[in-house]
Design brief:
This protein is mainly alpha-helical. The protein is built from 11 helices and 4 strands. The chain folds into 3 domains: 13-67, no CATH class; 87-157 and 263-281, Cytochrome c-like domain (Cytochrome Bc1 Complex, Chain D, domain 2, Orthogonal Bundle), CATH 1.10.760.10; 171-261, Cytochrome Bc1 Complex, Chain D, domain 2. Strand 1 (11-17) and strand 2 (20-24) form a beta hairpin. The strands form 2 sheets. Strands 1-2 form a two-stranded antiparallel ribbon. A two-stranded antiparallel ribbon has the order 3-4. Helices cover 43% and strands 5% of the residues. Helix 6 (147-156) packs across helix 11 and helix 7 (171-184) crosses helix 10 (237-246).
Length: 295
């Protein structure tokens, strides 16, 4: 008599390890469906999109889609949204924009990328300044802090200028004027140093001709205010002495301090500079424009 065989029982492959038999079970139907969907999807993708690399290029796909085209389309969409605001900015002066919160916010948002690319490496991401570079987030301005003046600074650049006094001042005159400058920020007046500062000694230093008789600086020539506690380079006695001795951008002194801001008038558009100036103005220390009441 022959043994009965279950027709639904999986076929035995004849392989057995440690009493474990290997059976020839077919894969589940859902798995087979997924497998076929996968390879069909690959074929459809290759037909529609760029996919297969060739020697000098790749297959194009019948849709002609590329990531570059997609990027350009997205940029065009963004530019279409920006355009009405940009047109308004072009036709308004700086003071008008400063009074319009919507346009000011738009300009500042667009300028953050420009600032990060061109200004942050020296002035810091938030205008906090860096070693030997001015702080833009305070209210101390060498050339003036109105929005219009900031536009001029960005467009044309700036170059500080202070003559070196190492060879013109005697040791006593140098010591005296350094002590005078050190005391200014604390309200102290060192009379001997004041005489040097005013050019009333033999060296005729005449520091007041740039920094003013009150030592509060002159924006016309970019001379800093010496009576506050904000310093372009260093406010220590040693730092002040070095600046007085070697000056700033003095071509005849190899140890002179360097203070040059490049011009961006040819690198950035007028609209970009306008936005950038508005951002810098709003960092915290921007000045209002002077209104002339004369008719």
């Amino acid at each position: 008599m022959s043994e009965k065989h279950d027709p639904y029982e999986a076929k035995d492959t004849g392989h057995e390890w440690d009493s474990i038999r290997e059976l020839d079970n077919p894969p589940p139907r859902w798995w087979m469906i997924g497998l076929h969907i996968s390879w069909i999807s690959v074929v459809v993708y290759i037909i529609l999109f760029p996919a297969v690399p060739l020697i000098n290029s790749a297959t194009k796909g019948i849709l002609g889609w590329t990531s570059i085209k997609r990027l350009h389309a997205q940029v065009a969409e963004i530019e279409a949204v920006r355009k009405p605001y940009d047109e308004k900015l072009k036709g308004m002066d700086m003071e008008e924009i400063l009074k319009n919160n919507e346009l000011l916010t738009f300009a500042q948002g667009g300028a953050k990328v420009i600032f990060g690319d061109h200004c942050a490496p020296c002035h810091g991401a938030g205008g906090q300044g860096g070693p030997k570079f001015p702080v833009l987030a305070d209210d101390d301005w060498l050339y003036g802090g109105t929005a219009e003046t900031i536009v001029e600074t960005i467009t044309d650049g700036r170059q500080g200028n202070m003559p070196a006094h190492a060879s013109t001042l005697s040791k006593k005159e140098l010591d005296d004027v350094v002590q005078y400058v050190v005391g200014l920020s604390s309200g102290k007046v060192y009379e001997a140093g004041l005489a040097v500062f005013m050019g009333e000694t033999e060296a005729e230093a005449a520091c007041a001709s740039c920094h003013g008789v009150d030592a509060k600086g002159m924006t016309m020539v970019g001379a800093p205010n010496l009576t506050d506690s904000l310093w372009r380079f260093s406010g220590t006695e040693e730092g002040i002495r070095y600046t007085v001795e070697h000056g700033v951008n003095d071509e005849e002194d190899a140890l002179t301090r360097n203070a040059v801001m490049p011009a961006f008038g040819e690198k950035l558009s007028k609209l970009q500079i306008k936005k950038l100036a508005l951002l810098v103005h709003q960092f915290g220390g921007g000045q209002a424009a002077v209104v002339d009441d004369e008719e």
